[in-house]
Design a protein that fits this description.
Number of strands: 31
Strand order of the largest sheet: 11-12-10-13-14-9-15
Largest sheet: 7 strands, parallel
Helix content: 25-40%
Keywords: ATP-binding, DNA replication, DNA-binding, Helicase, Hydrolase, Isomerase, Metal-binding, Nucleotide-binding, Primosome, Zinc
Organism: Stieleria magnilauensis
Shape: globular
Subunit structure: Component of the replication restart primosome.
EC number: 5.6.2.4
Bound molecules: adenosine-5'-triphosphate, zinc ion
Distance between the termini: 47 Å
Pfam families: DEAD, Helicase_C, PriA_3primeBD, PriA_C, Zn_ribbon_PriA
Structural class: alpha/beta
Strand content: 15-25%
């Protein structure tokens, strides 16, 4: 039984298990949002803080909230997140023992004096990586300040008060020092509840990102800035107007307005009064000047929110009778819900097996008990189709998406927080939706790369969802036809429960996949991208009035612009990567930084007239398709054609209604689409991503090919797939062609085991960037030395690689180097980085920054 609040342990009660320090003395005002730079080491303070760096570092490592790895860690780590950790917090001389006695600490060498009568707030900041720092709460602020509110406090030598977030209030100053006072409380009510505050501190620790930045990711800026509210000035009669003789001496229009306002008995805005008194602003302003009106300015919620989304794309309301696979899956999910345990479930259902219906039924079960659910989807799947499916089945759905205005975002956030919403559907940031009675978190297409944020804090929504579900003791449901190896491995190691849906709804067969070997000359088409076989298949499909999807995962027209005479390749001056030629507008564009120039008509090096466009992008494919199949109605979908809000849904509904015959595009056409009349899917070049210098290259290729192949055979007319490749024998492509996830997963796990790559071990990456190449490299080298010595001091088993230039060795004018860390134990890995960077300083003149990326999803 899913019961009420009581069955969910209250994790909000206890203090946050992170050590506190006094405010730093040498802070920095010049911190950049996404990076640690030269002098940001705010925790670098006086006396005991640095006297014995080893004790201090180790205490920090151990006393902090341990970072749970994704499934692959001991339950102790999770306990840290779920339990109020009273025995640790504020008791720095306790013996902190984590895995394998690794971080046992000596008692600190100084005596502590505890002042029990002082009310203390622990505060974290945006640009101070360490902390929290303790401040005294003056008596007049004691009742007003709660965790989750912002405060103004003095920080180091800064002249102006700094904004910080209060994460804990407590009695007793245990720092042994005199604390500075909280200067001001900035919010009337907490911006997030205790469990979310705890999630922030966990994320800050695990991702090694300042907690203030994590708060910024958690709370929409419009909420922080209280956008969506507006100031309105209300008018009421002033005391002077009580004198009848004064009122009578007025011009007629002014009299009428004033009498009306007195009669109304409640304040009005001047525009309301103008309507009622049928006058212009003139008489009202005159009354103001005479002091006959009192003004009161208030901030109010703007009430009605316009929405720019259409809700339906013509699909009928559906409530299917469940297939056997679906009922079995639902049964196991409801069992998990009823057990009120923090179970992780992986729903592995082949494409078209009806996973969405299972999600909806599971949420119905949650809603029945007065609870709510979050459904995370890849941003690109936030189509009206997905949205409609949820909106038709639940009374109150909040859909979050990136094209919302700040006011809309604010409005939805408030609704969610007030408990008015049953289901939140949104991309990765929706994992933070402040639902007061959350009962289930779902990640659809859980393997999708968009769940990882590529700016600070570099979190993965799956891991954050896992942490949030654990802390609330609720189930986490992951769903995919091509699960990430992380989630798959969790089912093999007993950390997650596997639920399989091996067949399609209605027992439809999986589509036939045919591989075309592009190494064989006869298979390639002369001067084109479409092989003979694919050409034939498209022709047949169009003749049968079926629809076609063609996947090419590269936008633009030509991917290199090269001089055949001297060999010069036109490249980005800031990134040194080849520019891509875009035919619309004749532009050459850098796909890494958007640097754009007019495509040069001759070679900029040798002036040779006859520069060549090599490589294939979607624009060139579109030209070829239109030439080969002139009668077909074709649309292209990639991030160039889909810039305008709504263009995505426009093309998809045209395709659904049969106004288009052929859809070509990048991976955005590979996901989630459910169109029964698609009889053919063509993959133009399956190896495009296969030979990337990234251990996930095979996994990505398998996922992409399997997912796009899954777009066909979803109706009663069958479907087939043609995959063009230069590597037909590659395991990922072989497995995808047979729809054999298991074969792929087993072979790939074996590959990863050789190097302890995730999911077997953990990886972190540190990117160092700067304007001067050798200074940047020298910084990378000295950071490496620090990592080596931290590893030694901790006795941590961590492999260190680098520094080396990554594939993108220069980006936006900055040289880049990276370091890779690898370990079987995420705790040791995190601790090594923490110790190495804690006191790492880069001289300001070097202008070098570094970024820590825990569990990186790409190595570029
Ligand atoms: N029990 C059912 N009976 C009939 N049709 C169903 C049933 N369940 C789902 N469907 C329909 O089957 C189609 C496929 O379902 P859905 O899109 O949920 O599959 P999926 O597993 O999410 O696939 P993919 O991973 O490819 O996105 C949809 O059109 C859906 O309406
Ligand atoms: Zn040339
Ligand atoms: Zn560039």
């Amino acid at each position: 039984m899913l019961t009420g609040e009581a069955s969910h342990p209250d994790i909000s009660a206890g203090p946050i298990p992170m050590p506190s320090a006094v405010p730093p003395q040498r802070p920095s005002d010049t911190h950049r949002t996404d990076t640690r730079s030269s002098n940001t080491d705010a925790a670098q303070t006086d006396d005991a803080q640095t006297d014995d760096a080893q004790t201090d570092d180790a205490a920090d490592v151990a006393g902090s909230l341990s970072a749970p790895g994704f499934f692959d860690t001991s339950d102790d780590a999770i306990d840290d997140l779920t339990k109020s950790d009273g025995k640790r917090a504020g008791n720095p001389d306790a013996q902190h023992v984590t895995q394998g006695q690794l971080f046992e600490t000596d008692p600190p060498p100084w005596e502590l004096t505890v002042d029990e009568d002082v009310a203390v707030a622990s505060v974290v900041f945006r640009d101070a990586p360490y902390g929290p720092y303790d401040y005294r709460i003056p008596p007049e602020l004691r009742d007003r300040l709660h965790p989750g509110m912002r405060v103004h406090v003095p920080l180091g030598r800064r002249k102006r008060p700094t904004v910080g977030w209060c994460i804990e209030t407590k009695m007793g100053n245990k720092t042994g020092k005199t604390l500075s006072d909280v200067a001001e409380v900035l919010d009337d009510a907490p911006l997030c509840d205790r469990p979310l505050v705890r999630l922030v501190t966990w994320m800050s620790h695990y991702y090694q990102s300042p907690a203030g930045q994590v708060f910024d990711a958690l709370i929409p800026s419009s909420v922080r800035a209280s956008a969506g509210t507006r100031e309105r000035t209300y008018l009421s009669p002033s005391p002077a107007s009580a004198d009848e003789s004064v009122v009578d001496a007025l011009p007629a229009k002014q009299q009428r307005a004033l009498r009306l306002l007195i009669a109304a008995g409640k304040p009005m805005t001047s525009s309301q009064l103008m309507v009622h008194a049928e006058c212009t602003a003139g008489p009202i302003n005159a009354l103001r000047k005479k002091g006959l009106l009192d003004e009161d300015t208030r901030r109010e919620m703007a009430t009605s929110m316009p929405t720019r989304w259409q809700t339906s794309d013509g699909e009928k309301t559906e409530s299917h009778e469940l297939t056997d696979d679906q009922s079995n899956a639902l049964g196991r999910i409801t069992a998990a819900l009823d057990s009120a345990a923090a179970k992780t479930l992986l729903l592995h259902g082949v494409t078209g097996s009806g996973k969405t219906e299972v999600y909806i039924r599971a949420i119905e079960h949650v809603v029945k008990f007065g609870r709510a659910a979050i459904v995370l989807v890849p941003e690109i799947s936030l189509t009206p189709q997905t949205r409609g499916r949820f909106e038709r089945r639940f009374a109150s759905v909040a859909v979050l998406h990136s094209q919302m205005t700040p006011a809309e975002r604010h409005f939805q956030w408030q609704r969610i927080r007030r408990g008015e919403v049953q289901v939140v559907v949104g991309p990765r940031s929706a994992v933070f939706a402040p639902l007061p009675r959350l009962g289930l978190i779902i990640l659809d297409e859980e393997h999708d790369g968009s769940f990882k944020q590529d700016s600070q804090p570099r979190y993965h929504a799956r891991k954050v969802a896992y942490a949030r579900a654990q802390s609330l003791q609720i189930p986490l449901l992951l769903g995919s036809a091509t699960p990430s190896l992380e989630s798959w491995y969790a089912t093999q190691s007993g950390h997650a429960e596997l639920i399989s849906m091996p067949s399609r709804v209605g027992n439809r067969p999986m589509p036939d996949v045919q591989l075309v070997d592009l190494r064989i000359k006869d298979e390639r088409s002369r001067g084109g991208a479409i092989s003979r076989q694919l050409h034939l298949a498209v022709t047949e499909t169009l003749r049968e009035k079926g629809q076609v999807i063609l996947l090419l995962n590269r936008r633009g027209f030509a991917t290199t612009i090269q001089c055949p005479s001297c060999g010069h390749v036109v490249a980005c001056p800031d990134c040194e990567m080849p520019l891509t030629h875009h035919r619309d507008g004749g532009k050459a564009v850098c796909h890494y930084c958007d640097y754009t120039i007019a495509t040069p008509p001759w070679c900029p090096e040798c002036r040779f007239d006859g520069i060549r466009y090599g490589g294939l992008g979607t624009q060139k494919l579109e030209v070829e398709v239109k030439a080969r199949f002139p009668e077909a109605r074709v649309a292209r979908m990639d991030s160039d054609t889909m810039r305008r809000p709504g263009s995505h849904q426009k093309v998809l509904s045209a395709f659904r209604s049969g106004e288009l015959d052929l859809l070509l595009g990048t991976q955005m056409i590979a996901k989630g689409l459910d169109f029964p009349n698609v009889l053919l899917v063509g993959v133009i070049n399956a190896d495009a991503a296969l030979h990337f210098p990234d251990f996930r290259a095979g996994e990505r290729t398998f996922q992409l090919v399997t997912q796009v192949a899954g777009r066909t055979g979803r109706g009663n007319r069958g479907g087939r797939v043609i995959v063009q490749t230069f590597s037909p024998e590659h395991m990922a492509i072989q497995a995808a062609s047979r729809h054999d996830y298991l074969q792929f997963a087993q072979a790939e796990i074996a590959n990863r085991r050789k190097f302890n790559y995730p999911p077997l071990g953990s990886v972190a990456r540190i990117i160092i960037r700067g304007a001067v190449e050798d200074v940047t490299e020298a910084t990378a080298n000295s950071l490496m030395l620090r990592l080596e010595s931290a590893r030694e001091r901790l006795g941590a088993e961590v492999r260190l690689l680098g520094p080396a230039p990554p594939p993108i060795a220069k980006l936006r004018g900055k040289y880049r180097f990276h370091l890779l860390l690898q370990s079987l134990d995420p705790l040791q890995l995190g601790a090594t980085i923490r110790m190495a960077t804690k006191t790492f300083k880069i001289p300001e003149k070097d202008d070098v920054q570094y970024v820590i990326d825990i569990d990186p999803m790409d190595m570029l």
